Amino acid sequence: MQQSIQLQKKKSALTLEDLPKEMVVEILKKLTPANRAVTRNVSKQFRVLLESTKPSLKYVGFKIETDSITLTIDGESIKFAKTKTGTFISFGQYQIERAENFEILASRKLLEVANHAKIDDFYIEFGKDSTGFDSTRLFAYDCPILFDVKNLTIKSPRNCALCFPLTWMNSETLEKIEIKIPNRVAFFENFDIFQYDQFTNAKSINLKRMGAFYSFELPKFYKSEQFEIKIAEIYTEDILALHNAILLSPRFKKCILHMRHVYSLDEVIDTLRLRPRQDGNYFFQIPDSGDILEYTVVPDYIKIERKTNLQ
Amino acid sequence: MSVENAPVVDVDEAAIPVEKKMYYRFESNDKKEFRVSELAIQQSETLNRLVEAMGYTSEDVENKPAIAIENIDGKTLKLVFQWCEHHKGEAIPVDDGSVPKIVEIPEFDAKLMDIDNGLLFKLIWAADYLNIVQLLNVSCKKVANMAQGKTPAQLRRVYLLPSDEEDEAAKRAAQEAQDPRAREVEEEFEERKRQGGNSFF
């Protein structure tokens, strides 16, 4: 018996164009991030096929200095040097900067490489000399897509740049936000990150800075599963506000508040109606629930943890 | 081609378990015949299913006609079976859905795929049809690696692809070939625009 496998009739000399789309997609899936960016510009068809592959990237990093931006994607780095400034093109009543501007090039490259990507870690570092203007411009442009980022880390000498990267992130996928501000910052009027869902919906928030939050900002964290922050000084009424916000929180588990000192520990304990435990900690029995809020209160540190069993 | 004259694929006899030592005969569309070990065939899901369904004995393999693989030529099929023999017994990778997919090209595979692009695309096509997962991975990776350090224009030359403009022009030309009146209408429209007319009608 003659067995045969029928294959589709093909030309003798195949090119990439002759391959079925699913095979071209298989090839595109194997491109490195940098090659992916180049391949996007080969043709419209390639762009469409590339966007169907949804890459997963482990690491995306932006290091922003006043004269350069370095974009690193899964071990491959591209440096964008600052070009001449002061060159503008007119667009109706507006003037926009020339397209060769390094911030635009860097953000465009990221879009080319990470379009529709899932990103594990997105790291942004603003250089110590970057001014508020320089450092925010990169993210000031409207990003046409939201990046599906899991962990976002921002290191900045100033607070003014922090909001902009948040607007690029998909609030549905952000799990952990870590913000590091190594320099002392006196005022936080521009540190208005609480208005962004990306910030308030994140499961875990870790804020480290030389300066500190005002304690009246504390209840704004209540949507987070856990957070760790440093605050300047804490007032009893602000802890009470946080306590009440936590009771309403759909997913609060744990928070750690660092501070120079609490003015009156006894007043906090009385106001919150905390009950002592044998181990020296305090607890609050959540009404209509078997859960408790366990308070560890020491002069420079308060830990609040939601627990299911009263031990 | 007679069985005696069939191209011989190198076989590592020691690596083949005794119970699997059966060689199937396949024929390409240009009538070249190959003998391939049962263990090597397991790299191809399509061929493996086929021979299982046929249930040939050792005598059947010798006495019945070779299994014809139509539309895969001998040159391509030889590469496919050389690859299968070299990688026989290796685990077949499972697609974890990751992109970009990390694929290392072993030295043997790199040498095997040191071929012109036309043959490489045929190899990809054959690997996909015969469902040889790892051969498809390495051959696609080889094509993907061609993008290294190239500009989009260079890539179009490497992959023999038209630019968007050329693609549009080709489509227009094809359309015009079907409907010559279309070009006349377009020219008339352009002429009216030049004369300052607001509407074509």
From TrEMBL, chain A:
InterPro entries: DUF38/FTH_CAE_spp, F-box-like_dom_sf, F-box_dom, FB224. Pfam families: F-box, FTH. It comes from the Eukaryota. GO terms for biological process: innate immune response. PROSITE patterns: FBOX. Residues 13-60 form the F-box domain. PANTHER family: DUF38 DOMAIN-CONTAINING PROTEIN-RELATED, UNCHARACTERIZED C.ELEGANS PROTEIN. This is F-box domain-containing protein. It comes from Caenorhabditis brenneri (Nematode worm). The lineage of its organism: Eukaryota, Metazoa, Ecdysozoa, Nematoda, Chromadorea.
TrEMBL record, chain B:
Gene3D superfamilies: Potassium Channel Kv1.1, Chain A. Residues 166-201 are annotated as: Disordered. It comes from the Eukaryota. Keywords: Ubl conjugation pathway. InterPro entries: SKP1 (IPR016897), SKP1-like (IPR001232), SKP1-like_dim_sf (IPR036296), SKP1/BTB/POZ_sf (IPR011333), Skp1_comp_dimer (IPR016072), Skp1_comp_POZ (IPR016073). One of its GO terms (biological process) is ubiquitin-dependent protein catabolic process. Pathway: Protein modification; protein ubiquitination. Residues 26-88 form the SKP1 component POZ domain. Residues 134-178 form the SKP1 component dimerisation domain. Residues 169-194 have a biased composition (Basic and acidic residues). PANTHER family: SKP1. Probable essential component of SCF (SKP1-CUL1-F-box protein) E3 ubiquitin-protein ligase complexes, which mediate the ubiquitination and subsequent proteasomal degradation of target proteins. Regulates cell proliferation during embryonic and larval development. Belongs to the SKP1 family. This is Skp1-related protein. It comes from Caenorhabditis brenneri.
